[in-house]
Amino acid sequence: MSVPAKKIVATRPCPISGSKDSVVISSKDRHGKPLRNVMSVESGLIYVDPVPFENTEEFYKTDYRKSYKGVHSPKPKHVYRAAKIAQQRLSRLVDLIPLSARCLDAGSSSGEFVYLLNSKGFLAEGVEANMPYAEYSQAELKIPVTISPFSQFQPEQKFDLITMFHVLEHLENPVLDLAHLGQFLNPGGHFIIEVPNITYADMAFSHKWHPGHLFSFSALTLSMLMEKAGFETVSCSPIGDAGNLWGVFKTSDQKKLLSTKFSKPASVELSFKKLKKGKILYHLRFWNYFKFISKIFSNIKEKLKTRAKNGREILDEIF
Questions:
Q1: CATH architecture designation of domain 55-318
Q2: If exposure means fewest CB atoms within 10 Å of the residue's CB, which of 44, 251, 284, 319 is most exposed?
């Protein structure tokens, strides 16, 4: 297979194919700072190379939320926004689990989804690597959250549902972390993943490259990565306006080893061309120039709805 760009040898291998053969997709992050994203010519997976953090786990433990949101604990508007999104997520998966289901939110952030699950009668807990946000959810929302990187997480019980929302793209070693968490999923249980959709047409090409996103997924590469980690794909496709991907997975009946032979897809070249084509098409969609208007109204609404309220009061009113 050939892609219309010069091949390079990446400093780290693609976690799906194990190959370092790649092409450069972008050399700058969304802020214009140096950040190289490459696409594996074997799998089509896009990832940051090299990893920009000296110690990735330490960065997410202490500094990530401050660098991303500018705060160490969520503002009321962030809680309100997360609560609304949590309701949408629950509506998508509620038919997959019985009322007595034991649930784990992997990367539970400030805890809104765990709080919602528990308020609906499920037995839910979280695991979160970022200390300030985990401590906020423990103290403010009074929910069970383990402060730990996934690689060190050792729960006492297994779960019927594991969710991971906008976390997978941040993991330096996603296959190892997914396989580790998969040990704690009950037979017949589901693993739900939500990640940004790198092929989303209504985001400017230059804005796709978040400095904290070590991987960028299409529906195909998300399924391939999960299968590499020992899961079977139930469904995987864009949701809403197609800005995010929603994947439903279950543990494979036949245990897959991390060295499972990789089957090269036929659509890597098409994916490359589609991504480059979208770089031009974005500017031809006139509505992309007016997104700021809806953001202004959303910010006003969030401030009005959360005025003089703490996080728990906001969630109790919404849920």
A1: 3-Layer(aba) Sandwich (3.40)
A2: 284
